[in-house]
């Protein structure tokens, strides 16, 4: 490939900063928040408004783009630039915006129906291109706005208005899907864990390239308690694998469980730490270049193994689509002898002309 | 065959003839050679005077195989010259297309001047010194035929020889063989007595200026680049490959030095979505497509109507419905452009009338989009896209100034007297809303597809507000009419009772038909619409001036439906959907009949 300018990985380097200290309130709009009382979206909104001041970015250089669905109302509540677009298309719209404007921090807010059903195509292509986007995928495993049909992340056999005898299709595991598309940053977090949610958002913001953050979000109206297994105060820790880069994958209320690599097939499984010994426990490597490791981690939360890793699955640095696109344009413009107007003259003239007097 | 046609066109253009071309090819990339569906043709019309169409029926037909002869014979008038490659008229090839007898031998071509030449044999002989296999050698026979025609019409040859040398620079044997075949064809014409005449078509009298030959898609791409330069906005093209629009993507991708970003999207929807996103960011967002792609983009066009952001949708129409005839032309997407969205979603429509006119039409589409903050349709078609004609290269200084001003300051004060920004406060003249791009401090705002309150842009479900917003968006588009010129009618005699009204690529055939009609002593008025939404303000008055209005279209009557509904004029249609442009001769006949009917009544 020629004319690609290597820009390195300045995470937020191209976005103007502000000197004025910001508060969460600066990111609130005068619009009344209209989610159902008790909705998990409130917690995510508060976390986002709460952590953005840390970045110190000029508020006018932040854009939230959403599709359609409950979560997609998000931009209306953020005192930044924002667009509430059409169902499933936010990643495509945000791709154009991020490509055209290097100086913007572009966030996509989407849900499991928006991102994985109607917008599945745009999502996977944004992920594979590694466009400079932060995609927050609110996964409540149900359709909320259309009042309770099953979603592409609903478990098989889900009884809903549209599936009175149970849903038949296998759900997506959004993290596995993203890793299959070679996403450079993939993480999962939970609406109710403000601290963890904030730490993951921060890591995503600092990543240059596409960051996909799956947020388990409770819909208390149509799918209440979807994540109770891991949210349970007493036993939740037994099912939640908290991933920290460089730390062994040990979890459980008494830290008795750990993730080991099965020597037979290389897959990751959960074992009793005391039985296998601490040295067998996998040390988390979020920066592993090969996505197979992160993918194996993501498979812990299949139907048979309901362990839920949360945190950053993968964070690697690859050239981004938009940086390279701008690099090609810059390289071509650098070769210009004159300005655009004089160049337009030669373009229009072309090679083969004749003159009539 | 397309390459051969391009070369002959190029020589003809540089010689100074006026010309018009009509490439016609199957949708299949490598359609089986020698079959009727596999025939690829290139029609060229050139003259020492101003011409408007690629011609109805050829004076010379070069048929490289029996299928090409059979496919084109119905369009070839008696008395025409036919040159065929006799080597290809084998029993097997004849059988493939259902010829029982060899038409070269059974007397069925008696009405034509047939030159049955062993083009393959002569070419193979001419290139034998280069050591190519027979198959490769025979490939040069198109160049032999081109050489022969170049002799017949006194075309200059240097350009083609230079072209061949540079095209095959890395394969000198192939270059040499093609040049040798080309020269051999020329020499064959000059030395043999088979061709008793050589024609001289003098350069056409054209307005002073520097000219080049240009196809519609190229002119459209250049128009977009020019619009970007003239507006000072970087061009962002979001596109998905589709025939016959892909050439625009290819072309624009070569011009990054103008700050052009081209994005080959995963689908049509992402193509327009990315373009709209770029527009939100302050770029000149453009998407290119054809009918099926427009169908997929409809929802995003509706969003653009609601967001009131500039966006240009270049729709290069082709035969439909569905996949239809991808490589053939049609004008059947006018209603889709006009109404193909949910809700009341008016979008201005601009249509070029000739290949070179695509340049000006692109600038006009961008002007409307930027001035009125609206998506705009630029409706071209396959005939314009691939056809070509001489183009007088415009003076850059004469191009329109398309500069825009982004909003930089708050435009409203809240109840407490603090300045704030209302994204839907309109310019009283254009009704355009302010374009405030991200990065502008103090103007942070949220827009979306949900209905907005007039002025503030906040979500509003208020019935009266929705009615107001629907009417305001319509009024904004209607108001574009105040910025466009009146429809000019061409009626040299000034006493025509019949008006022929057209839009888009039918301009050439209608104009040529009108010339024929006038030459025969009748009066006819011709009007051609560049703007279809909104119509020019004088259109209603123009229509009422004539006793009869006839509207030829390459569809089953789309413009006429709009005209009849809007002006209550009893216009009559003339409609064909053959995937081909109208013939001037055919239209002249239709117009003559209409005139006779009016005169007789």
TrEMBL record, chain A:
The Thiamine pyrophosphate enzyme TPP-binding domain, residue ranges: 68-215
SUPFAM superfamilies (UniProt xref): Thiamin diphosphate-binding fold (THDP-binding)
Keywords in alphabetical order: Oxidoreductase
Presence of the UniProt keyword Methyltransferase in the record: no
Coiled coil feature spans: none
Highest taxon of the lineage: Bacteria
Record flagged with keyword Oxidoreductase: yes
Protein name according to UniProt: 2-oxoacid:ferredoxin oxidoreductase subunit beta
From TrEMBL, chain B:
InterPro entries: 2-oxoacid/accept_OxRdtase_asu, Pyruvate:ferred/Flavod_OxRd, Pyrv/ketoisovalerate_OxRed_cat, Pyrv_Fd/Flavodoxin_OxRdtase_N, Pyrv_flavodox_OxRed_cen, THDP-binding, Transketo_C/PFOR_II
Domain Pyruvate/ketoisovalerate oxidoreductase catalytic span(s) in chain numbering: 14-185
Superkingdom: Bacteria
Keywords, in A-Z order: Oxidoreductase
Gene3D superfamilies reported for this sequence: 3.40.50.920, 3.40.50.970, Pyruvate-ferredoxin oxidoreductase, PFOR, domain III (3.40.920.10)
Signal peptide span: none
Domain (Pyruvate flavodoxin/ferredoxin oxidoreductase pyrimidine binding): residue spans on this chain: 236-454
Short name of one Pfam family: POR
Name of this protein: 2-oxoacid:acceptor oxidoreductase subunit alpha
Classification of source organism: Bacteria, Bacillati, Actinomycetota, Actinomycetes, Mycobacteriales
């Amino acid at each position: 490939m020629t004319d690609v300018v290597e820009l390195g990985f300045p995470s937020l380097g191209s976005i103007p900063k502000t000197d004025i200290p910001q508060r969460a309130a600066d990111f609130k709009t005068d619009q009344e928040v209209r989610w159902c009382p008790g909705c998990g979206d409130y917690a995510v909104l508060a976390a986002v408004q709460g952590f953005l001041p840390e970045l110190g970015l000029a508020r006018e250089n932040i854009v939230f783009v959403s599709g359609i669905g409950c979560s997609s109302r998000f931009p209306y509540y953020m005192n930044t630039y924002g667009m509430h677009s059409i169902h499933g298309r936010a990643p495509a719209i945000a791709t154009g915006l991020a490509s055209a404007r290097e100086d913007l921090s572009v966030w996509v807010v989407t849900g499991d129906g928006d991102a994985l059903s109607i917008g599945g195509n745009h999502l996977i292509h944004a992920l594979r291109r590694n466009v400079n986007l932060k995609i927050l995928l609110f996964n409540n495993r149900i359709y909320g706005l259309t009042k309770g049909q099953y979603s592409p992340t609903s478990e098989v056999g889900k009884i809903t208005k549209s599936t009175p005898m149970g849903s038949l299709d296998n759900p997506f595991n959004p993290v596995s899907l993203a890793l299959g598309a070679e996403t450079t940053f993939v993480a999962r977090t939970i609406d109710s864990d403000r601290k963890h949610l904030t730490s993951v958002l921060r890591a995503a913001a600092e990543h240059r390239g596409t960051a996909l953050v799956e947020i388990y979000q409770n819909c208390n109206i149509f799918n209440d308690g979807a994540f109770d297994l891991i949210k349970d105060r007493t036993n939740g820790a037994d099912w939640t694998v908290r991933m920290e880069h460089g730390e062994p994958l040990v979890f459980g209320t008494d830290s008795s469980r750990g993730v080991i690599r099965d020597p037979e097939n290389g897959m990751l499984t959960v074992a009793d730490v005391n039985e296998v010994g601490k040295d067998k426990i996998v040390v988390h490597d979020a920066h592993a270049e090969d996505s197979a490791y992160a993918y194996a981690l993501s498979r812990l939360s299949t139907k048979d193994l309901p362990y839920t890793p949360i945190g950053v699955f993968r964070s690697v640095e690859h050239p981004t689509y938009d940086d390279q696109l701008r690099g090609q344009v810059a390289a071509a413009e650098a070769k210009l002898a004159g300005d655009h107007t004089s160049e337009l003259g030669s373009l229009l003239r072309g090679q083969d002309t004749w003159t009539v007097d | 065959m397309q390459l051969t046609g391009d070369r002959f066109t190029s020589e003809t253009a540089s010689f100074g003839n006026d010309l018009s071309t009509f490439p016609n090819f199957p949708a299949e990339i490598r359609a089986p050679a020698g079959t009727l569906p596999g025939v690829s043709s290139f029609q060229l019309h050139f003259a020492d005077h101003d011409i408007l169409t690629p011609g109805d029926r050829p004076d010379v037909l070069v048929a490289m195989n029996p299928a090409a002869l059979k496919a084109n014979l119905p369009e070839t008038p008696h008395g025409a010259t036919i040159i065929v490659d006799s080597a290809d008229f084998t029993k097997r090839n004849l059988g493939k297309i259902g010829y029982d007898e060899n038409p070269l031998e059974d007397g069925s071509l008696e009405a034509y001047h047939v030159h049955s030449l062993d083009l393959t044999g002569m070419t193979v002989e001419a290139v034998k010194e280069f050591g190519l296999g027979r198959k490769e050698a025979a490939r040069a026979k198109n160049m032999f035929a081109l050489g022969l025609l170049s002799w017949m019409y006194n075309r200059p040859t240097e350009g083609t020889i230079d072209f061949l040398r540079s095209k095959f620079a890395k394969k000198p044997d192939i270059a040499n063989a093609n040049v040798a075949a080309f020269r051999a064809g020329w020499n064959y014409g000059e030395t043999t007595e088979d061709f008793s005449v050589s024609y001289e078509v003098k350069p056409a009298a054209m307005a002073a200026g520097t000219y080049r030959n240009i196809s519609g898609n190229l002119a459209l791409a250049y128009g977009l680049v020019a619009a970007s330069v003239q507006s000072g906005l970087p061009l962002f093209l979001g596109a998905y490959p589709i025939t016959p629009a892909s050439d625009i993507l290819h072309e624009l991708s070569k011009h990054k030095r103008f700050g052009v970003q081209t994005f080959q999207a995963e689908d049509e929807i992402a193509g327009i979505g990315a373009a709209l996103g770029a527009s939100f960011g302050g770029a000149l967002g453009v998407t290119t497509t054809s009918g099926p792609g427009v169908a997929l983009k409809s929802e995003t066009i509706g969003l653009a109507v609601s967001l009131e952001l500039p966006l240009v949708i270049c729709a290069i129409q082709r035969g439909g419905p569905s996949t239809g005839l991808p490589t053939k032309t049609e004008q059947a997407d006018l209603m889709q452009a006009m109404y193909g969205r949910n809700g009341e979603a008016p979008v201005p429509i601009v249509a070029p009338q000739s290949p070179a006119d695509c340049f000006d039409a692109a600038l006009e589409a961008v002007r409307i989009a930027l001035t009125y903050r609206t998506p705009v349709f630029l409706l071209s078609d396959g005939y314009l896209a691939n056809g070509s004609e001489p183009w007088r290269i415009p003076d850059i200084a004469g191009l329109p100034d398309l500069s825009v001003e982004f909003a930089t300051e708050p435009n409203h004060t809240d109840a407490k007297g603090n300045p704030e920004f209302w994204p839907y406060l309109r310019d009283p003249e254009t009704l355009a809303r302010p374009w405030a791009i991200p990065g502008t401090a103090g103007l942070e705002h949220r827009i979306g597809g949900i209905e907005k309150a007039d002025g503030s842009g906040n979500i509003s479900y208020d019935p009266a507000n929705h009615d107001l917003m629907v009417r305001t968006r319509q009024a904004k588009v209607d108001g574009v009419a105040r910025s466009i010129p009146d429809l000019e009618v061409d009626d040299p005699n000034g006493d025509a009772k019949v008006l022929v009204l057209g839009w888009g690529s039918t301009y050439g055939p209608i104009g040529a038909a009108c010339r024929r009609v006038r030459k025969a002593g009748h009066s006819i008025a011709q009007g051609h619409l560049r703007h279809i939404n909104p119509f020019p303000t004088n259109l209603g008055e123009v229509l009422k001036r004539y006793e009869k209005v006839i509207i030829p279209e390459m569809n089953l009557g789309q413009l006429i439906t709009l005209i009849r509904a809007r002006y209550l004029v009893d216009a009559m249609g003339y409609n064909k959907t053959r995937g081909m442009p109208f013939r001037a001769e055919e239209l002249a006949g239709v117009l003559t009949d209409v005139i006779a009917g009016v005169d007789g009544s």
